[in-house]
Each structure stands twice: as C-alpha cells, then as structure tokens.
Amino acid sequence: xxxxxxxxxxxxxxxxxxxxxxxxxxxxxxxxxxxxxxxxxxxxxxxxxxxxxxxxxxxxxxxxxxxxxxxxxxxxxxxxxxxxxxxxxxxxxxxxxxxxxxxxxxxxxxxxxxxxxxxxxxxxxxxxxxxxxxxxxxxxxxxxxxxxx
Length: 149
Ligand SMILES: [Zn+2]
Description:
Blueprint: E1 4-6, H1 12-21, E2 29-32, E3 41-42, E4 45-51, E5 57-63, E6 71-74, E7 86-88, E8 104-111, E9 115-122, E10 130-134, E11 137-141
Parallel strand pairs: 1-9
Antiparallel strand pairs: 1-10, 2-8, 3-4, 4-5, 4-7, 5-6, 8-9, 10-11
The protein binds zinc ion.
Residues 33, 35-36, 38, 89, 91-92, 94 line the site of zinc ion.
C-alpha cells in the first residue's frame, strides 16, 4: 500500500488517521531525508535547515510527539504571513522541496522500518494544510485544507 500524506506542522488529524492505519506506537515512525535517506528525527524532533525570503538562515525543529504539532525555530523568528520558507536537509544540505508540489517540502516517513510514506508539508508560513492522498482520492485536513494545494 502506497499513500502520499500531506500535512503541515505535523497535524494531529494526520496522526489520528495514521494511527488508525497503523495502530502502533508513534515512536515507531521515523523521518528520513528524501534525497540522502538519512534519519532526520532526533529525540522526537525533525531537524531541518531553513532559509527565509530575506536570506536569513536558521534551523527548524518539528515536534513529532503525539498530540503536539508545534515547531521551534533557531533563531526565534516571526515568519511573515504566507512567507515561503526554503527547507533543506542538515545532513546532505540538499533542498527537500516537492517537484510535483513546489510550495511543499517533502519528507520520507518510515513506519516499523517497512512502510514508506511521502510526507508533504506547506512551506508557507501560517498555512495549515493537511492532505492524505490515497488510491481512492484526496482526504484533506487542517483549517485551510479546503483551499486546495
Ligand atoms: Zn539529506
């Protein structure tokens, strides 16, 4: 079974859906770079390099804990509304943007070391969208999900 899952800020609804698909402990999910396949989550946080529209660089840590869909950014910045953030892998330094959906960043989520999911989350600050694309169609989650990709 192959599914594409689109979400922003590790949305809780996506986790609920995934928990239904895979009723197991969330610690068994690991996140990897789509380019170099190195593990990107450390102690429950996905580490990504960021570059703002103004060229400022930083580090983002997305929380992967169940029930938490927040992130921490170093340095502490307030992103402009709809600002498009560049994301890259801290290991291979390649950008991890989706070719099919350029406004989204791509991660590989591996469940139980067996099942790979493509995770797409919005690169736009303040836009909360969650999509789960299945063979049957698109399931959308998040407060802005109805506006589409
Ligand atoms: Zn990489």
